[in-house]
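Example record for the data management plan.
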Amino acid sequence: MALFTGNYNYIKDGVALTLNRLVAFLEKRGVPVLVFAPVAETPAFESVGELVPVPSFAIPTRKEYRIATGLPAAQRKRLEAFRPTLFHIAVPDILGYQALKLAERWNVPVVASYHTRYDTYLRFYGLGVFEKLGQRYMRNFYNRVRRVYPPSESMAEIIRQDGQSQHVEVWARGVDSELFSPDKRDMAWRRSLGMADDEVAVSFAGRLVKEKNVAIYTRVMNALAAKGLKVKPLVIGDGPEMTAMRAGLRNGVFAGFLHGEQLARAYASSDIFFFPSESETFGNVTLEAMASGLPAVNAIASGSNSLVTEGETGHLVSARDEQGLAAKLEALVQDESLRNKMGAAARQRALTFSWDHILSGLLDSYRTVLREAHGR
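Corresponding structural encoding:
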């Protein structure tokens, strides 16, 4: 299989980690994989499998991300020598589009995973006028592949309704429930960050960028503090909005970018998870927080809707209803027994997301696509 993506190892985000996990799974089962993606001078982590770098440039407004400029002759020669029987495109960018055209020319079946709502991102950077154009492009792109794999049923329904594809199968995400566990709670770590034992830590995790609605997190947390509630905002992550959050968030604790055991400890040492992002197609951080035993208060979004069970594992509220978000958080802050009840339910819900089961299902789908393509 040939995999084409916009980021495989230069930023340690949810998409890159998911794709690395997929490649490791496939190679373990004897499926050879060749990955084509942009690279940076210094990788964020050691990636899995063989990575073929493609030319790229940094996005002017988001220099930490890169855009591939295509698939030059040398990379095509390597791809042709590899002789893939399946193309998997993770991003509908220039590289993805050239890969799609090449696969059509070679008569190789193509599938695509759907990780990000790129059309909605335009709104956050003053480019909303191009949103409809982006939607038309995505309809053209995804209707030309044999399967589209969104990470949630709610996102799958959006893809169908938008006319992007009717050949949609959910490829959900899993969670390491041994790593992310309530057992990782560490009160000494909390105290080292200046959190009192009787303060309720409300955490946010992820890239600190506009499209995650970090401004809403800041305003809602400030509103709770203004009411005299014993809350402590705990921000886990880094990104271009860090400076604005540090300046605007009252009494905030900034843990920085964490991973592995440190990240698991931070989740479990929180009391509530608050994630107002609307741009998630799944929400890996929400699932990790739930596995850690936290009730989640999330904005209504295609990803969160498939994870959070309203009134049972947490709450779903419109991101535009900041008073509603604050009210749900306030109720949890003031009721420890309710937090514990919802947190336990969240943990049980998270345990149903097994990586091995999920990736095995995707491999089965690949095999079905190949049988269909070859009339077997």
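Summary line stored alongside the record: The longest strand covers residues 62-68.
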